[in-house]
């Protein structure tokens, strides 16, 4: 895979900053309509092939809250997280992409 495109860059950055997420949430924070979810699925597939993201195993995922607590969610969807290679890519960005960093356990404002 060549250099990730804008959507792929935002996905990896979001996953690095917020934590594991699923396709619907990624589309929501990217401001995409339901008809554009296939773009996110295709981007995730390419990122998986390039070893920048991976599926999260198990049935529960735990997030750290800004207040220092934790939130545990049952995974009703396929969640993705950045790999070590993906984390290095996100840290190496010259500037932060324009993406809402709404936690997965909260709804993004429309």
UniProtKB/TrEMBL annotation:
One Pfam family named in its UniProt record: DUF2250
Superkingdom of source: Bacteria
InterPro entries assigned: DUF2250, WH-like_DNA-bd_sf, WH_DNA-bd_sf
This protein's name: Uncharacterized protein
Organism encoding this protein: Oceanidesulfovibrio marinus
């Amino acid at each position: 895979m060549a250099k990730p495109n804008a959507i792929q860059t935002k996905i990896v950055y979001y996953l690095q900053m917020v934590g594991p997420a699923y396709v619907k949430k990624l589309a929501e924070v990217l401001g995409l309509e339901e008809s554009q979810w296939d773009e996110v699925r295709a981007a995730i597939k390419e990122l998986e092939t390039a070893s920048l993201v991976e599926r999260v195993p198990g049935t529960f995922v735990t997030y750290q809250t800004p207040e220092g607590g934790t939130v545990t969610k049952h995974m009703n969807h396929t969640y993705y997280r950045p790999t070590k290679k993906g984390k290095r890519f996100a840290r190496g960005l010259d500037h932060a992409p324009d993406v809402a960093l709404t936690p997965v356990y909260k709804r993004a404002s429309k």
